[in-house]
Write a structure and sequence with these properties.
Elements (H helix, E strand, L loop, with lengths): L30 H16 L5 H7 L15 H7 L3 H9 L14 H8 L2 H9 L14 H8 L2 H9 L14 H8 L2 H9 L14 H8 L2 H9 L14 H8 L2 H9 L14 H7 L3 H9 L14 H8 L2 H9 L14 H8 L2 H9 L14 H8 L2 H9 L14 H8 L2 H9 L14 H7 L3 H9 L14 H8 L2 H9 L14 H8 L2 H9 L14 H8 L2 H9 L14 H8 L2 H9 L14 H8 L2 H9 L14 H7 L3 H9 L14 H7 L3 H9 L14 H8 L2 H9 L14 H8 L2 H9 L14 H8 L2 H9 L14 H8 L2 H9 L3
Amino acid sequence: MGMPALGGNGVSRPSVVPAHGHLRRSPDMSPRNFWLLLCGVLVLASAAACTSELCAARLADVDLQYMDEDGNSRLHIAVWNDDLLTIQCILTAGASIEAQNNQGWTPLYAAAVDGNTGAVRALLFAGADVSVQDDKGWTPLHTTALEGHVEATQALLVAGAQVNETDADGTTPLYMAALAGNTDVANLLIDFDAQVDAQDEDGWAPLHGAAGEGHAEFANLLLVAGADVNLRNVQGMTPLHETAMHGTMEVTEVLLGASADVDAQNIDNGTPLYTAASHGHTAVANLLLAAGAQVDAQNVNGWSPLHTAVWEGHTEVMEVLLAAGANVDAPDTEGWTTLHTAAWQGHIDVAKVLLVAGGDADAQDDTGWTPLHRAAGEGHTEVAKVLLVAEAQVDMQDTDGWTPLHTAAWQGHIDVAEVLLAGGAQVNAQDVDNGTPLYTAASHGHTAVANLLLAAGAQVDAQNVNGWSPLHTAVWEGHTEVMEVLLAAGANVDAPDTEGWTTLHTAAWQGHIDVAEVLLAAGGDADAQDNTGWTPLHRAAGEGHTEVAKVLLVAEAQVDMQDTDGWTPLHTAAWQGHIDVAEVLLAAGGDADAQDNTGWTPLHRAAGEGHAEFAKALLAAEAQVNPQAHDGWIPLHTAVWQGHTEVAEILLAAGGDADAQDVDNGTPLHTAASHGHAAAVDLLLAAGAQVDAQNNGNWTPLHMAAWQGYTEVAAVLLAAGGDADAQDDTGWTPLHRAAGEGHTEVAKVLLAAEAQVNPQARDGWIPLHTAAWQGHTEVAAVLLAAGGDADAQDDTGWTPLHRAAGEGHAEFAKVLLAAEA
């Protein structure tokens, strides 16, 4: 048969093979080339029977392009079967030597996995890539190292495999060997210069792997080869941490014998002893303590080895640590002692061990919680009993004034509550807000606990600092079952809080329909007023709770009751725009024209807030469109005040008076102009509003716009025929106003509309005087450019320069002098 040339790896085939069968390396031949020659001879020998006729017969009717469902080619399958003859025939037939299956395995990789050394040699001899990687980045050397295939490993190394090649995670073949404890492979890898301290992406080195897996002989081999016994990974873990985690005693002894740092700290300041305690490895803990480990070393959270042993419930380790002098009451960074931890976890036996060791049953953490608080909060009844037997104070208060009974009530742990009460807990103990355990139980809807506390004498109407009783908080949260228990115990349904709210106010605010019905059935006053005069109906209306409003009205709540500001429930609905509530109130006879203390009706309020649909509903209910408030404003004033053009349009369509005057004779147009709402101004003008209407000071809307500097509004008014030279009762024109306020752009618009540049007010002032008075140099430049008289004299004979000088406006004076004043 035709053999592949030995040049597959770039190696020349020797020309002479001694007839006696012994190979001898010539001086100019490298060891690697000699090895390849040896492989070739071995392959030739194994394939001696591989004639062309035999291969043809063997491969008859065989599809060399075949691949199974896992992506394996015929060559892969031959490798799996360790069939060297078929491998040679398939290679001779030209099959791809680097074909990869679904896992990224080439035939060489597959041979390495199974340790089929003959196949490995044949494929290497045929030129297979020795460094090919699978989908994890593993090379054939990684897998032979892991599987412990010594001969295959040697074949790969001699063929040029990179001994320190890393996979996708940065792992070397030596680390793989360490995981499996394959010392023979390791020796071979080290002979080929494997780096004994090579670390992967997470900082794990071969010694970490051997330590974690308990391979003592392997660990010793690495240490002899120079491995760093205290090498840390990215988490700061040393090999000793690894043995402590996995409880590998023999490796621990090896590491300690190599002077491993017994108190090495990881990034959380955890020591190997902490790790051993956390995982319950008593024997390792004993070894570490014997080697001098600090028994109370704390991590970043202040936890000692004893804390973590307690957390995990490892009593045997605890006893070892306590015997070594561990501080049973050492607090962590939050003030927790080991007893707090035991109580939190509910470890009864652990708690007993700690108490016997002198643990303080009344130790308080940073929040003031004792172990009994913790046990009560978590519902650990038996731990609570153990603590009480140890004479823990049953009514000790935390920083918020909570007793253990409060914490039990908070979580609804009735069994613990019973134990605490039997232990003498005060049923009416008050926290810093005067809240009792009953208040806490009611707030969280724990009916059974509430019943227990009431039976033990809890005051049903005890109020906290806000005047809230247990019934208030149950109502707020919507706990109807607890409410019924409290009411049956005589709770006052109408007791007011510090703001005058009754429980019905609370139900209405929250929108709890069922709650409101329960309270009304218990005699709750539907018209009770709080300190602002609001009734439950005001609250429901203000929050938009339509169904609650219906319930209150069915209970004959007064529909038009007024608060201290004169607001009815319809005002509050209008304020928030709750149209559904409004319809209910109007259907029940609510007064659409009711006036508050300022004379505002619900329509004023809806218009001012921009609630267009609400305004429509009121008008449909025949609300007056032009009612005047005490300041003379009609709803149209309030709408344009805020620029709500949609509402304004609705009001105008319903007959809103575009020229209605307030007590200062101001029209809606004055209001819109003074607040810069150009669209509203345009709408009012289109509705026929007088463009030059004058208020009590003879100001026109244009004066208003000029005064406030609303250029767009001024332009709209001028386009509608607004008088640019209209004078107010002082004789000031809009240009005087713009100049006095420094509104340059408005001044330009007025001048472009041919406003007089030098009109005199009654005191003789022209616009340039008003600009000089305030020092507005930019406006002055515009006025002077338009022909402003720099030497105009007022009634006192003062020119603009006098005025600027008198006010100390130096820059303005310069402008005037430059204009030859």
